[in-house]
Amino acid sequence: MCALFMMENSSYIFLLGIALLTLQAHYPKLKPPHCNIFLPTSNCEKVNKGNAVLLFFAIYLLAVGNGGVKAALPSHGADQFEQKDIKEARHTSTFFNCLLLGVVVGGSVSLTCFVWVQVNKGFDRGFGLSFIAMFLGVIIFVFGLPWYRIHVVQGSSAITEIVQVYVAAIRNRKLPLPDDPSELHEIPMDCEATLHQEFLPHRNVYRWLDKAAIQSGNTDQSPSPWKLCRVTQVENAKILLAMVPVFLCSIIMTLCLAQLQTFSIQQGATMDIKLANSFSIPPASLPIIAVIFLLIAIPIYDKILVPWIRKFTGIPTGITYLQRVGAGLILSALSMTIAGIVEVKRKNVAKHHNMLDATPVLQPLPISVFWLSFQYFVYGIADMFTYVGLLEFFYSQAPQSIKSISSCFLWSSMAFGFYLSSITVKIVNRATTGVTKSGGWLAGNNLNRNHLEKFYWLLAILSLINFTVYLFVATKYKYRPQSRDVEDE
User: Fold this and answer.
1) Cut 0.85: pTM above it
2) To 5 degrees, how large is the angle CA 388–CA 390–CA 396?
């Protein structure tokens, strides 16, 4: 019920945010005068005072609404499949692939139709189309409410139970661990009050957390949950703790994505964007290249590759979640390497034609924008592996009581990655201040005189180091054991 509530209310918040942006883009009094930022002689005004408040308020509403929808939607969809049913459980992976396909289809419409409307008809109409699309999505979602499977979580807050394990382990830190794990505290499985309760077997990992389940010598019939926890409760805490390194390793890939989404568009603005004599692709639509590759790759992977690989591995998803994530991480490093090579070629063209100081868009370099398709292709495949792999991993491994928000781990890692990307750019610029006249590898608006290729290769090296660490983490990781319910017993 939590996921449904979160999605519905987050949708309304998102609608409000996009409505405010539409209004601000429509009325001239609410925005600065039109200005071309690429012209050196331009004196562009910044949005200020009340208009700035309105702009940031709308953007933060979008962030909150988007975060709520993205956090709840994947888990809510996966909840529609019974994990104890082998046939339905197999469809969970297909659902996550279809979810990514849906995101890609929506992105393709946004990057083509909506961007064209914004460039040629105005941002107000582009935002208006986004509002209409989201409004229709909310109507469809609400219409399906009577048919959804709703999983009501019983008991106390899962987050509270995890915190209780750490508190109890600290309080019992001086108590000796029993040699026999069966001596640790667990409620009897034949107790009527435990109907539908989850039971997990004990594992010999993170043994220091087992101290939270050590039973003291007193005969207190109702021990404090902050002093004594169940074995299952402790095992859930162990699972979450083991997921943290995987979570951290996924941040670097998002850092690469953030740079690809920004600098590739800036690169495209300096290149020849003509598809034909009468049609040009707007720089903001360049990510459509990766989207097109994903539209082709996802059905092939899900309908052809997975069934074929399943015959050899016996794994319903073809390969394990962590193997899929690892494939995405190494492809991400390859994508950054290719991006650096393409940038070297782009700068060589600018140097060869004496166009190092050419104005982007107005004076395009004689090199096709489709040179960027190589890095977008590789990164698109990497995203297909990592995005779905992490969604499946976090959903399958998260404790039962927090599965409805398990995808928060993925979006949190992406948020950290985007935030880290801005910090990384500042650090690189500060460390390379004396290398370029603009004050750093990435400073200023002239990419032709900067060193973006070195920055891409730096990201490739970081990605390789991250992948090496990930291999160690993934090798040591032990998957969540099959839970035992009272009903099964």
Assistant:
1) no
2) 100
